[in-house]
Each structure stands twice: as structure tokens, then as C-alpha cells.
Amino acid sequence: MSADLYRDVDEQRANTSAMRAFMGFCANRTQLKFDGYAQLQQWAIRDSAEFWKLFLEWSRLPVSGSPDPTVTSSDCEHAQFFPNVRLNYARCLLRSFDAEAENREAVVGVREDGNRAALTRAELRAAVERFAAGLRSLGVKPGDRVVAVVRNTPEAIVACLAVAAIGAMWSSVAPDIGDAAALGRFSQLDPVVLITHGEYIVHGVRKSLRERAELLAKELRTVTTLVALDERPDIASLSLETRVRVVLRKELEGYGALPMSEWDEFPFNQPLFVLFSSGTTGAPKCLMHGAGGSLIEHHKEHVLHSSFGSGEKLYFHTSAGWMMWNWQLSALACDTQIVVFDGSPTFPVQDALLRMLDREQVTIFGTSATYLHALQQLGLSPASVAPFEKLHTLQSTGSILYDAQYDWIASEFKHLEVHSISGGTDIVGCFVLGNPLLQTYRGESQCVSLGMDVRVMTGQGVQRHGEGELVCMNPFPSRPVGIYGDSNGDRFHKTYFAENPGMWTHGDQVRLLERGSARILGRSDGTLNVRGVRIGPAEIYSVVLSVPGVVQAMAVEQQAPREPGGSRLVLLLVLQEGVVLDRGLTLRIKKELNQKGSPNHVPAVIVQVPGLPATHSGKYSEKAVRDLLNGKPLTNRGAMRNPETLDAIGAHPELQPLA
Amino acid sequence: MSLALRQRVVDWLDDNYHFGDTEALLAGDDEKSFLRNGILDSLGFVKLMLFLEDTFTVRIDRKDVRPENFDSLGKIVRYISVLPGYREPA
């Protein structure tokens, strides 16, 4: 047995898994023999169109039209899946399974103060039908953008599904995002409706969203209606321009119902979700994800890789501003119950979230390596909190789940199945994840997602195994259908396909192992990952460079094993001659980043440096600084026009490698 | 109460969470609950604990990281200043 084996295959679970059933279905239909996942994967990549066609058929998702052609070409950048299939995403999630499922809680909302609200599948559907009727009465049409500032609650799910039901597009952020960041995102979308909660709660403290709502309603010039999701009178009484009408949720739901049977079907590639991806330059990109592509990818990940289904109860720790919120939503399509939590995981007691998991009898717990690390740092042993009798699987994403954390989970939590899953906003899904048919090795994702030809770009070109940049060679349905406002596709091409033409370049470093597993190593581009939250340096620069005295800025991630999440954000500044980075200026910069960005945009360390390294073409090199701060060999020093800046940065006492 | 220790904790709160507004948030009440008043977030206690260990050369028993010892400025100062190995900051 390999020393790094965390957990062997549970043969009973493997034999009854959907992955095995699907393998049998494919073997039967293709007359091929699959001895295991590796062979199934080889076929799914080799005959990708047949694989996706069979999966759609096997899934029994309620779609119409012809599955032919399954995919329009083999070109990863431009291929379209199922151009002749139509569906309604919300109907796929809210369809009726059986009488028992109708009356079982489908969505459970738990607040940090212990308040609990649940909707059965029938109740959830009825609520969506009412909300959809209201939206339609407001004149919302297919393709319109609806934006939302919402907490992680059942009513936010109802609103999102109602938007999907009428074929509009949904884009949400969490309430803790700053005004500038929210505006920078939503203003690109020309939305017609703004949905907002009136307040949010942090550690028992209620914070009003009135000013945020007022600002967004004023600045988003295309918005004609503001829907207040809760009964806060200060939102209802907002005095806005005549252009914007304020509607309470109760009023909206007073327009009757738009029954599910009357929901139209829309093209498979109709944009549904808009997620935001921020890079090192420019405004955040508005990634449009298609309804069908999102659904079929999520369904594959949920049912095949994660063994979701009837009787399972999922809690994934997320906010409405992260793609995992959209991801967990789709679990309704396989009759898995969803628990959403509104508040802080450690309030009013440090083990509050753990107690909730046990109380709700959650079976699958999705979290971040950062949260697990924080528990470990606190010396908090979940096993001492509750028995977690129903819990069998832990999914972790957002940042790297290190080898030792697997052992901590087994000894201090429970010997759970551990799925280290990774992908992201860009694909609203995963490239690597779990698998009931495979062993689990510490620090590794069990496999590459079925049907995705994921490889590594190394110094020797594209390889099946080894370490390098993660690329995907073949088309996949959850590739964004485009970037909103990028009518000729230039920005989309530049972001994902310019570096390696013909293949999706994701921006992650990965090690693909011969046994089929994968280990994500971190970002390969300048994007930051702070406590599991992805941050685009461009958003930091736009704030910092507006502070008087700041001339240049560079934000990089530095490995810091003692920090929650294992890394910290470092900001380097070049200041005007005569300006010194004193405590007052440091605090002012942090405050601005907190207010205009979010708490995650605030660096742990800010230092003044004489200059920043730039290439001969004038592009600043985050990579060079990141390597330096993390004790890695500098591979591109020769490409710098001012390598002496690296010497000054390397000698700075606050910038020494910590790992 | 050790004023130097108190100031270091206030500085830390300013550096990491309130950016110059900590004293205003406390409003002269060093016993104000951090949790109930939103002065520390979920990860705050972990980060504060690590800072205190590194800065004051003390070892904090993880079982002690609970509101009784950490939920206000006064509680932190009283708890830390009697730990073995504690050295008054310069």
C-alpha cells in the first residue's frame, strides 16, 4: 500500500455509485468494455461528443429537441454544445420526482442567530412561480440582466430560480463587497432589475444596506425596479428618482403565479449566470455562463463524481458572490437537499457551523482549506463537538488542501471521504475532483473531470503527466458562452486562448500524476488567492493608485504557513519623491481597500520599495516578485529592464520568504 | 492594566480590521464584546492568537481561545499579561 494513501475505495459505495452505473450504461450502448475510470475517461475524451450525448440521455434531465449535433466542432474556443436542445434551467431543478420528494425539505436556510426556515420542493417551486410572475409583470424579458446584492438565504435562491425560469440572466454579489467593486461589476451589465436584501448580519451586528441600495439604484441607469427581499422599512421608503420603482417581495409575489408548466424553454447556450473574474488589468470580466452548459457540467460533477442524489443533504460554505453558490444550486436537479447558512461560521461560538452541520444532519460538507486550517490553529477538534453521524464526505476548494490536513480530518473530524476539488469562476465548475471508484491520496484530487482532456503545459510542450500550466485541449459545455460586452470575442480570446492557441489556459499550476490524480499547486498568473477568495490585482491597483502620493503598486501572494489559508497578501508601493509610507498612510490605504474593495482586498503587509520590476516591453512582472518572496528561483530576471529593483525587494526585511 | 500591551492590541486591530477606527469603536469601553459588536471576524481570533504568541513570546493553550479570555480588550490584556514567559513590550 502506498504510504501517501489516505483512503481506499469503499467497494460497497463504489458498486452502488452513479459513476459505476453510468459506466455500465456507456459500455452497453457503445459495446466497449471499461475496466475502470481511466478507461472510461480515455473514451470520454476520445469520443467526447458521444460521451456528452450519452450523459444527457442517461441524466434524464427534462430537455427537448435533438441532441444532434452534440458539439459543433473540436475547436475548444468556439465549439457549441447541443445547439438544437432547449431547456429551462429552473424546471430542471424543480421538477417533481415523487410524492416523498415533493414534501421533503429542498432548501433549508439557517441564520447565525439560530433562525431556521425551510421550503419543501413543492413550496420552493410555488415560491419561484410567484416570484417569476412578479418579474414578468415588471416587464423582465428573456436575456435581461437582473443583479442582486443578497445574503445566502432561501429567498435569494427563489429569486435566482425565478430569473432563470423566465430566461433572464442572474448576477449576484455578497453584501460585504464594497460599493466601488459592486458598481464596477454591475454597471457593465445594463441591468433592468436590482434585487437587494435590506441588511446583513456580521457577528450579531446588523448592518443596513440602504445606502448601498440607494447608490446602486442611482448609478445603474438602466435599472427600473428595485426589489427589496426583506421587510426593512428603510429600503421600502427609499426616495429614488421616478425612474426606479421600489417593490417589496410580498408585493412582487402578489401578481399570482407563473406555473412551471408555462415556463418557456430556451436554447441550451442561453446565458444564465454572469460571474466576475478580475485579473491584473482592466475592469472585472463579466463571464456569461450558459444555462445548459452550467447544468450538465454541474450534474456530471454532482451525480458521477460526488455521488449526490436523493437522500443526500449538502452544505457548501459559500456566499452569493462565489461560483460555488451557483454550483450548489444545481444540486436540486438530482434531488439533493441544500442547506444555506447566513452569517459567520464562528458566531456566537467558535464551533457554531459545526454544530449546525450535525443538527441538520448534513451528509456532504463543502468548505475551504482555510476554514479547516483555522479550526486546526484553534485546536478545535470537530469530533469533540458532535458525532456527525450522517456526514460521509468533505469537499474542499478555494485553496490548496495540504497533505497533513487529510490526517487532521481523519483524526480530529471523522475518516470522511475527502474530495479536493478545483476549477473556478471561469468554468463555473471543476477540472479536478473526487471519484467513488478511486483511492484518495493525501493532497491530491482523485481525478480529472470526466470528458475533459486536461493536460500540463511544460517546458517540453503539452504533456499528459508532469507539472506545469493547466490546459484543457477539448471543448467542454461549461466554457463561458462569452464575456458580456465583448462582442467580437477579443477579450475572451486574450484571456483564455491567446497564450496557447486552441486550448483553454486556466491560470493554475497543476501536477498530473500517472495514477490519474492531480495536485493543484497555485495560480500561474498574477491572480491572488486570499484565504480561499480569488482577488484580481487590478481592483487593488485601481483603489491604491487613486491615493495621493502612490505612483506604482504591485500586489502578490506570499506563502505564510501560519496564516489562515496558508498565504498572505503583500502590497509593494512606489511613492512620489519625498513621500514616506508612515503608519497614517498605511492605515488610509488599508481603509480605502476595505471600503471600496472588500476585507479580502486588504493586504497583510504594505511596504515601500524604490521601484518595481518590469519587462523590456514595460509590463510589470508580478511573477518575478512572487518567486522572490516565496524563495523560488528567479527564472525571468534576464527579461527585466530594471533587475536592480528585485535586489531591493529581496533585501527588504519584511519581505523575506516565510515558508 | 498594561497600557503598552493594550496599545499593541489596538494597533493590531487597526492594522488588520479597523484601520485607525478601533478606539472610536471601543468608545472608551475596554470591556466591549468583540463578537457582539463586530470588532473581530471569524478568522480574527486565530490571527490575533498567532500575533500575541509571536509578539509576546507566550504560548496560548488552544483550549483558552474562547470568549471568556478573548472577547474584549480588557479580557485579552488580563489573560496575556499573566501567562508564563510574558514580557512587557518596550
Automatic annotation (TrEMBL), chain A:
It comes from the Bacteria. The keyword ATP-binding applies. Residues 100-474 form the AMP-dependent synthetase/ligase domain. Belongs to the ATP-dependent AMP-binding enzyme family. One of its GO terms (biological process) is lipid metabolic process. GO terms for molecular function: acetoacetate-CoA ligase activity; ATP binding. It holds the Pfam family AMP-binding. Gene3D superfamilies: 3.30.300.30, N-terminal domain of ligase-like. This is Acetoacetyl-CoA synthase. Residues 540-619 form the AMP-binding enzyme C-terminal domain. NCBIfam families: ac_ac_CoA_syn (TIGR01217), PRK03584.1 (NF002937). Keywords: ATP-binding, Ligase, Nucleotide-binding.
From TrEMBL, chain B:
It comes from the Bacteria. This is Acyl carrier protein. Gene3D superfamilies: ACP-like. It comes from Povalibacter uvarum. InterPro entries: ACP-like_sf.
